[in-house]
Amino acid sequence: MEIYLDESGNLGGLGARVTEDDPYFVLVALVVREDHPIKRCIRDLRRKLKKRYKVKSELKFSDSDDASKRRILECIGKTNNDIAYILLHKSLGDALSPYLEKEPQILYNELCKLLLRRVIDEYGVQGPVSIVMDKFLYGAKRKSFDKYLADNLGNIQVSHVDSKRCPCIQAADFVAGAIGRKYRETDDLFYKKIQHKIMLELDFIEPDQNR
Fold first, then answer.
1. What is the per-residue pLDDT across 99-148, written as a single tens digit (0 to 9) for each?
2. What is the CATH number for 194?
3. Count of domains forming the chain
4. Which of 16, 84, 107, 142 fits 29 for a cystine, CB–CB 3.0-4.6 Å?
């Protein structure tokens, strides 16, 4: 099994410091059975865009126009892959109190653990699980993160890759952007394109609840 992680929002301004512009954090797991269709989704859009104007080295939800977002998400929705995510309300107060005086990375580690554990349990995976994420951790922080997941999840392999070179990470970014927009702007236009592929929705307050 391969699981690609990406997120929408950030973990700054927790608790009383949360802002109206960024009240949620969404962590997404794109569970990939077949990566070729995902790669084709990204490749085909890049080819189309290249005919009209210079294309950036990486496709991202936040930088794309609505037509591109719709095209990518509709394409992902047609693949034989699944989506899971965990939602954090950044104004949770007491539920976040153990994390408020610590680095946001501690909370990020916990969210990854909760989401991945549920995904692995849902599929009843017995063999190794490959977890792939954008390269943003380095040195001791990366080693600590990898060890934390291995200690809590067992037989896993974590890869930190350059998202510019990984279409599946770019696809996960579009999925996270669509889900994040649903909550922040109460706009589910893009969310509906991939809603039928969502096999697991978790809330940080009640991580064992499958909605």
1. 877 788 999 999 999 999 999 999 998 889 999 999 999 999 999 999 99
2. 3.30.420.10
3. 1
4. 84
Distance, CA of 139 to chain centre: 22
Q: Give the other-Cβ count within 10 Å of 30's Cβ.
A: 29
Mean confidence (pLDDT) of the chain = 91
Look up residue 72 and give its two tokens.
């990518």
**Does residue 6 fall inside a structural domain?**
yes
